[in-house]
Amino acid sequence: MTNVETAHRNIDELPILDEIEAPDFGADLATMARNRFENPYQGLLRTSTGQPVAYRNSDVFECLNSSNFTHFTYESQAAFAEALPPEERKGWNRFWKSSSFVKRAPEHQPLKNLSSRRLAMKVMDRYRDVASKVFQERLLVVADGSTIDYADDFVKPAINEFMRRITGLGHDEFDPIAKSGFGFAYYSSPLDPSIDQVREASLSVDDYLERFGSALNRQIERGEPELARELGADFNKMSEHDKPVSAGEAFADSLLDAFHTMVGLVSAVNMELTKHPDVWAQVSADPGLISAAYLEASRLHPGAIVHERDAVVDTVLDGVAIPAETSVLLLLTFANLDPEVFPDPAAFKLERANRNKQVTFGGGRYTCTGRHLARMISEEAIRVMTRPNVEIALEGEVTWEPAYTLHVPSSMPVSIKLH
What we know:
By secondary structure, this protein is of the alpha+beta class. The protein has a single domain (4-418), classed as CATH 1.10.630.10. It is built from 17 helices and 12 strands. A hairpin with a 2-residue loop joins strand 6 and strand 7. The protein is globular, with a radius of gyration of 21 Å. The chain starts with 28 loop residues before the first helix and ends with a strand.
């Protein structure tokens, strides 16, 4: 980054990225990214409302990793729901209060650590057998050769069952939790949500946190299962100043993405493999390639399309003056398709340089705490689906939700058979 005084441009001088306000934004990100990188102008853009937009990998990577930028604050997000009456903002306020994402570094770290320790890869590895088992069980339900929606009929029920088992909850407790979790994701994810969607999201997340937080707190009191016992121990080690309202509610908050983002990611990872039979055959023959297949598929299909970072000081990005408290919109999917970093970016390659430049889960101090959970679940789904006795075929066009902040499928018609 350069000194603010050396900035050559202001935000209002930047070209407008009209595509982001199109009703079909997100429906074909690969084509949109290719067109953007082929444009003679390469540099920061802005929305029609004046928000700067970064899409090149170098600019996105800098925003994610520089101490001059931080995650959005509670104050900036509270404006999102300010049109609601106070009583209808309850869910949103509860969500933000339990989240580390609206706290600035280093204040966010203790709350983030509470969740990230239970979601570390060495912990997630304990649950690989559980993940494999739920996918195998679900496979027996859907593998009759009929057309199903891969995300809704296979991945979503399997992930719900996985989450239910590792938290030790019964179906009567967990099923309403999952319903509210998916409801929140659905209503909160549009790029430009209506006031009704903002209201429904608030109601959904309030119900979700009440149910799941209370259920997890009861498990912590009982000291089982293992996940709850260890979560309780971590909570008890925190200082009184750093403790959230409850360990259960804070952990439930961090798991919200499992109810939508992870379903889209796991589904997309597997669907990408079906489009490349040669790669599918390689992975089927050599399970040691599963991790490489996951990394490449998740580069092409990150769970989130956009993210935001706020400047904490007056700074400069790509020669543009960014005043303090300015929110920069980051196009994560575009950054993962930057040809300067990933040559032939739309191709599926098991071996690629610059894996450390992928921004599938953000980056820096606010890297997604659930990234190891998503990876483990995705890898186990690949392991199950690439077994020699499994046959999967696309039965129609895969489509994606338009005008969404998340990269989630709207349709993935497939048929599955077992031999």
